[in-house]
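To whoever picks this up:

The nightly regression suite flagged Beta-glucuronidase as changed. Nothing in the input moved, so I suspect the structure step. Input below, exactly as stored in the fixture:
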Amino acid sequence: MEKITLNQKKLTVLHKMDSAITSYNIEMTEVTGGTFWKAFTPGQVAGTEEISAAGLADKEKMMQVFPPVDLKEPRIRTLGKALGPVWVRVSGTWATSTYYDFDGHTKGIAPEGFQSVLTKAQWDSVLDYVKEIGGKLLVSVANCPGVHKEDNTLDLEQARMLFAYSRQYGVPISAAEFMNEPNLLAMSGAPEGYGLEDFCRDQDAFFTMLKEEFPEVLLVGPAATCDKEESLGEAAAVLDTLPIIATKDIMAGCKVMPQVFSYHYYNGVSERGAAMGGHWEAEEAVTEDYLQVAEKTCGIYLPLRDRFCPGAPLWVTESGAAACGGNSWDSTYLDVIRTANELGMFSSMTEGVIFHNTFASSDYGLLDPVTHLPRPNYWIFLLWSRLMGETVYRTEEPIREGVHLFANSRKDGRDGAAYLLINNSKTEVTEADLENGADVYRLTAPFMRSTDMYLNGKKLTMEDDLTMPDLKPERCEGGTLKIEPGEIAFLLL
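Regenerated output under the current build:
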């Protein structure tokens, strides 16, 4: 059993965090419609049905065709607005090969050199959604054979049209990455034979165009992934069957530096790609080794940010438990412990933004792709955004099994502190001594792979009439508060 005392006098200020930390991705393939990761079955989600490990050779079997997401759908709008004015990123691998057809001349058929088509109506729906939630828009653009001239240089007319149209529409694009995950050019959708020098040349051209013609747009990059500790000079073991370009080489080759340094964080690869390596089993999902991945990944990219973009914000522009559509348990309470820990750990290490992947697609989505009802991870995002203020404190409590403790100012502006306490032990209770009492938001589930989550014993759900639940605390007037194995609690003191 672990025992801690919550003493506000021991808190010291670390920094201010970005209030939009709970941002998210809407994949370009969600907007246009197209192939994406096939959903796991209910038995696979529950852990009662076996899943065969797969690799890239079986990728097509792991995909299915989805219609375009309806961003006007009332549940999506209501749940998006509830999270507040966050960033929305429209990107993903599919964005690298998407053609923008705003006058209908393609009739939905992708031109040579592209894989999909974005229509005016589809893009209008994105802009309307971002405006409705009071958010800001981050995009990446096409970098496929279709946007390269005969001499292999980049044709920027498609990108220029997207930015100009959005500005004219009244919802300008606020930030841009050139390309999704340039470390993995072999599977990115870039032209055959496209290499590091080509990427650096083209990102420089894209960033220069934005600085000259759309100076209000934040330059974000490089959307890095798959780096190991820089001291080792190695690529990550995940996807190690593919050629991977180190982020330090990408940054060293570029002349125009981003204003925001971005990277992607996944704890590993889902069962869909387990044959490639890097997969964690569900039994490991609350272990210290598993939960340390977020911290270690941030620790890889912070020095790179400091080296190439000193003083720039650090953004995680894709984040989730597992690449390849998420693990079978990512739609359950089991993944909430990882998500809560990531929010606390990242905000204590730096003052950036996390873009959860995705909002409403595949098994890692915050919302169910079919019903658009909230999954457990949605509620942890919502509670964090409602309770945790912008000032981040050091708790002086070491992270260990049973005690993942983080502290911020209170979002309501009142004196005191907002604590997040995660008991990731499978067997032991954690006791927290409260000197003057606390308002307690206790999160539980009937079992770890449950798709339901409870707040102080009441199931969190959205009603058919779009009514959101009351997120009310229980008052603990002092003494010792017991946090059971696998429980999460927000504590307002």
